């Protein structure tokens, strides 16, 4: 069954819910039991990590189980868990595998709040980290220590868009007994299958393309069979869960994810190609664009691209001209996050935050999320802003 068909027919069995094509929303904290035998039987079932059973609201309901099972199936993993946000997914996936005295390797292009967590909370817990150049590939072997337990990758980086040789990194990590975690939010479960490339745990900000409508926060952790018990135990022990209404919105968004991503990809590539031809632009950072950095790895390992990429202007445009460019955009609204129906812009400067991989560009940079609007209107919006940039 293709992913497109699975999203319509494979997420749940309507017969499980009286014929309803969407599982109902269970608002449940307390779950009662018929008698002690029933309580003890469900308790035994809870101890079997692959069993979905109603025990307490925080540990899942049929609403939760339906979305978790669908996401694991789509990504090719063993099982999935839902947590409150993408950042919660990242931090939980790390903490499940580390203890005081451990060392971890983290991509220098990692999501900013994940970096902050590593540099603050993990540092206080006596877990040391080395931020590595995301283009290292198998040369990452030189950074391993006897205490290295985990590699946290993000490919492509969601701001600077370096592609990583994930199979090579995973091979080295496993040789050293380390777990590989990847933030797969950009590619979604449709465009990159991490478990086919050696990854042990995949995390998503389900807030982005899975929800798809900018109206709910959601984190997803999917694991292989070997890592499942470790992650499940940590998530349950720390009280992580996702609220039922957000789960329902994510499930609803999942139904149209393939259709939306087709539009995001098509419009994103068209606009990236148009931008690459602009005289004001030094580099378009879109791995799906021929000639862009990382394109060969993208072609080898990925089956598609989402609508998020970055642009670097040629040097010489001052701060005020750049502010005028950003402020003149009408359809690309200034805002954090991405993955929704609307187009967004966000300026950035990673030059002071890249200790392992120096930022090689001198010009102003901004990230675009290309939404579901007509690409012709989005190009016209950018064209008008470029006129402001050059003072016309």
Describe this structure in words.
With 392 residues, the chain is of the alpha/beta class. The chain folds into two domains: 3-26 and 61-255, Aspartate Aminotransferase, domain 2; 257-389, Aspartate Aminotransferase, domain 1. The protein has 13 helices and twelve strands. A seven-stranded mixed β-sheet has the order 1-7-6-5-4-2-3, sandwiched between helices. The protein has a five-stranded mixed β-sheet with strand order 8-9-12-11-10, covered by helices on one side. Strand 5 (179-183), helix 7 and strand 6 form a beta-alpha-beta unit. Helix 3 crosses helix 9 (244-255). The longest helix has 20 residues, at 257-276.
Spell out the blueprint of helices and strands:
Layout: H1 3-9, H2 36-47, H3 62-75, E1 79-83, H4 86-95, E2 103-107, H5 112-124, E3 128-132, E4 148-154, H6 166-175, E5 179-183, H7 188-191, E6 201-205, E7 219-223, H8 225-237, H9 244-255, H10 257-276, E8 281-285, H11 295-301, E9 308-313, H12 319-328, E10 333-334, E11 344-348, E12 365-369, H13 375-389
Parallel strand pairs: 2-3, 2-4, 4-5, 5-6, 10-11
Antiparallel strand pairs: 1-7, 6-7, 8-9, 9-12, 11-12
Helix pairs in contact: 3-9, 12-13
């Amino acid at each position: 069954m293709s992913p497109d068909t699975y999203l319509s027919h494979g997420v749940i069995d309507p017969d499980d819910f009286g014929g309803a094509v969407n599982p109902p929303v269970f608002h449940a904290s307390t779950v009662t039991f018929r008698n002690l035998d029933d309580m003890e039987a469900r308790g035994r079932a809870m101890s079997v990590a692959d069993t979905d059973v109603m025990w307490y609201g925080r540990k899942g309901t049929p609403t939760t189980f339906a979305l978790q099972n669908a996401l694991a199936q789509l990504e090719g993993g063993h099982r999935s868990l839902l947590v409150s946000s993408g950042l919660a997914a990242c931090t939980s996936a790390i903490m499940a595998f580390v203890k005081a005295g451990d060392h971890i390797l983290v991509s220098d292009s990692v999501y900013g709040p994940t970096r902050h967590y590593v540099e603050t909370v993990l540092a206080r817990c006596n877990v040391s980290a080395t931020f590595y150049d995301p283009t290292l590939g198998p040369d990452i072997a030189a950074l391993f220590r006897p205490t290295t337990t985990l590699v946290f990758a993000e490919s492509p980086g969601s701001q600077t868009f370096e592609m990583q040789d994930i199979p090579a990194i995973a091979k080295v990590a496993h040789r050293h007994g380390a777990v590989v975690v990847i933030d797969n939010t950009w590619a979604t479960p449709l465009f990159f299958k991490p478990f086919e490339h050696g990854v042990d745990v995949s995390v998503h900000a389900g807030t982005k393309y899975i929800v798809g409508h900018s109206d709910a926060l959601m984190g997803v952790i999917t694991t292989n069979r070997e890592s499942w018990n470790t992650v499940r135990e940590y998530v349950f022990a720390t009280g992580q869960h996702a609220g039922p209404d957000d789960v329902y919105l994510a499930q609803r968004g999942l139904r149209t994810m393939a259709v939306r991503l087709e539009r995001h990809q098509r419009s994103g590539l068209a606009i990236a190609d148009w931008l690459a031809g602009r005289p004001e632009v030094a580099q378009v950072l879109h791995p799906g664009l021929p000639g862009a950095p990382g394109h060969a790895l993208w072609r080898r390992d990925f089956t598609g691209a989402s609508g998020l990429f970055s642009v670097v202007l040629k040097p010489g445009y001052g701060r005020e001209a750049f502010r005028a460019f950003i402020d003149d955009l009408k359809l690309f609204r200034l805002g954090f996050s991405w993955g929704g129906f609307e187009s967004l812009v966000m300026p950035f400067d990673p030059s002071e935050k890249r200790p392992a991989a120096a930022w090689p560009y001198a010009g102003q940079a901004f990230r675009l999320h290309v939404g579901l609007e007509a690409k012709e209107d989005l190009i016209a919006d950018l064209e008008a802003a470029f006129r402001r940039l050059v003072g016309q």
